[in-house]
Amino acid sequence: MTISNTAGWRPTMGDTTAFGEKSITSSGDYALMLEEPLSFEIGGEGKCGVDLDEPEMAPLAGLPLRDAAPELPGLTEPEAVRHYTRLSRQNYAIDLGPFPLGSCTMKHNPRLNEKVARLPGFADVHPLQPQQTVPGALEVIAQLADWLVTLTGMASVAMSPKAGAHGELCGLLCIRAAIEARGETRDTVLVPESAHGTNPATAAFAGFKVESIPATAAGRVDVAALKAKLGPNVAGVMITNPNTCGLFEPEMKAIADAVHAAGGYVYCDGANFNAVVGKVRPGDLGVDAMHINLHKTFSTPHGGGGPGAGPVVLSEALAPYAPLPFVSRGADGVLHLVEEETASADHPDSFGRMVAFHGQMGMFTRALTYILSHGADGLRQVAEDAVLNANYVLRSLEDVLDAPFAASGPCMHEALFSDKGFAAGFSTLDVAKGLIDEGFHPMTVYFPLVVHGAMLVEPTETESKAGLDRFITSLRSLAERAREGDTRLQSAPHFAPRRRLDETLAARKPVLVWKGAPGVPGTPSLSEIGGS
Amino acid sequence: MRYLPLTPADRSAMLDVIGAASVDDLFVDVPQEARLAGPVEGLPLHASELAVERHMSRLAAKNLSAGSAPFFIGAGAYRHHIPASVDHLIQRGEFLTAYTPYQPEIAQGTLQVLFEFQTQVARLFGTDIANASMYDGSTACWEAILMAARITRRNRAVLSGGLHPHYAEVVKTMAKFTGDKIVAGLPELQANCDDSHVIGCIDGETSCVVVQYPDILGRIPDLSAIAEAAHAKGALLVVMVTEPVALGLIEAPGHLGADIVVGEGQSLGVGLQFGGPYLGLFGCREKFVRQMPGRLCGQTVDADGRRGFVLTLSTREQHIRREKATSNICTNSGLCALAFSIHMTLLGGDGLARLARVNHARAQAMVGRVTRVPGVSCLNTTYFNEATLILPKDAREVVRALAEKGVLGGVSLGRLYPGVGGLANGLLVTATETVTDEDIETFATELEGVLA
Q1: Which of A39, A89, A389 sits opposite B345 (nearest CB)?
Q2: A332 and A390 belong to one structural domain
Q3: Domains and CATH numbers, chain B
Q4: Calpha distance B139→B240 (Å, rounded)
Q5: Which residue from A348, B157, B282, B316 has the least number of CB within 10 angstroms?
Q6: What ipTM does the predicted assembly reach?
Q7: Which residue from A250, A278, A365 is facing B56, i.e. has the nearest CB?
């Protein structure tokens, strides 16, 4: 195998040239479709993109010196800029088109947020600077905290969790601390079948046993089954609302009341808060803890897989147990950090510390910028437009795609379809890969698990009607092709930088790092990684 | 509203298609009493880009930024020069606004970067493999302890006194809930790391010993000796690296017997950002791969036989394994990994080694100058770019007084270890390539004034 795109022929190029041969370029590139080797294959000895003078220094007595510098070739700046720019063009992104991943809330990332986060007063400030030198940073945390608490109708917020799942952990640890403070032991957390995988994983990570709650035929939590499981062993329930079927749980308050009556707490997975922000306050529904993915509802960039940020709003009952550090306004009106040094006086029941510093400050500045831009009215409009867009998708496609819960009423911010009605041998994956060829990112597939061949479409509020119409037209044509059994769909995508990738091979013989010597292109060979 | 493309006419036409009279009709499942009639009370309404930028800029201006003062703070977060191209490249929309690469055919950019990142981290750490990043160093440290427990089927972890106290706090907090036993101590205020004490704590029930390298006081522990002692008892050596630039100069932990190496990758490409987002680094021996937490990117081929990359071994992860997963982590720190990787690519191994030598030389100059201030001595005999000064008085007051003079003069051990009287006069100071001779002179002069 060579690194060049020798097999880079695309159907768009036609089967053959006028000379009866496949159209192959000598470079392996095709106009704006550019291949890019690994940096190690193009880097070379002695190349460096950073100018540094060799320092004068005293002898290095006592240090366990490295035998040789890490075996990593460098690139000069022009080479590096080209390498990463060429790689970037192999990615789909919100900036290129709709990214309708259900439960992921891939909305436009405003560029003002990026500009603000890069102000030296935010970007170039150390977490352990004396507090007197960072009042603006503490103010950002406090202002964002005020917004989150007010929007959710809760008592307080723990800001430090690093992502949604970390926020779930924070909430469950608050619940454990609260139960232990009552002198009780409760070892079970109830989690609906339709929950994100992080929910049961987090409960286990926090030391709980997990019991599953079934869903009803209408795609909601089976409230009777849930109530039947409540008892002295149940620490709490984890409920996603709106749920992963894209539906609001209308019995949320009744569930919360029953859980509280049985001595437990209610954790709400806030991944889908975008559907109700400014419309509903979770605190009014009896929620005790809910994480807010700033990278979903509040538009901080996903960055190809993080960083996220997962502040957790807490009820009066759980607020005393929130982790350190904490920003608090003193009697004198001045903001200060509550760390280990002052915790015993200011925050004695804290369950401890979850991260080294203060959480995802770079995400706080972006989220606060987003929130101030929208204001209370704009955030309400966000939820309304997000729900409107999802229902528009649902009703525009329900005649060609099975929508298992469409009969029970409107959806919230995401529309759920299934693979029912596809020709034999055609799957959700084929439709997803077909969307790639149509120039769209696929929706979330095979989740939630309670629906066979699930397709979960979350358009978000930042898609225009014209953009949605294009998406609907494409998805409609793919649904028809899957129903009719168009076999070309089974080998999609045809036009992407890569065809379907062999994931079984990747898992069976993992190649996780590049093993070749620097500057030697084209290794390892296919045979080394078990290919044929 | 500048971010919302639907017009009133669009909304009306869409409601017609849906068959609803109003948007409110779409919220029928929300009980009436829980529906707010209008915008949440007590909060301001939308604002222009100009107004928001003005508000945020005023908040930013209240902070003393590191670049506008003589700056000597480290303690787990380091200020290094970030080449301009790094920030430009991570703002390419195709990187910035992409999701986790679950559809690999249209995410090869992110995936190839992660593969390169994993290779860079593994070669830096001297480990066989590395993952695609964790939240930060402190959470990576706890994940390493859990991983060691899974491998050894033991649950007693020994933390060296030289481990960053915030990291130790994270570990102790988490262990309270999981029931893992944690043996931890405070650093001794002495020139050398107390490796023999750590070794003495390892017993036949120990899953791992966690050692920071260089440690919180800037000293360099003898990893080989600790590895040998740990392995003799069937325990693993977990090494924590909070300053990866150091590994341009000192030997890689993986070459000294470490089984798992974790790190805070903030030093390269990411910046200070008041503590986050940062970047957890995680490397280990290849034989432990299936016990590893976090995402992994692997090489494979596509249907045409071309090399490509995918997320792999996801049967360890929460979206497949649910409550049996190796970790609950979903999001990692992708954009920070990209920044780290670009910075590392610009440096290359030789450039990193030179950067490390520059850092060490700056630290030598700083230590040499400030220890000429009457009453100030340096605890360390070995250090990389960070060392502990012993002052004649409580360092917390000194740090605050220096800040009044516009000097960000290190981190007092009193802040890191509140209530530990024996450490109160310790001041942890750092010098990277960003520190000038003039900064050092100002620091020494003001320190002398404050102590006088």
Answers
A1: A39
A2: no
A3: 70-81+350-451 (3.90.1150.10), 84-344 (3.40.640.10)
A4: 11
A5: A348
A6: 0.97
A7: A365
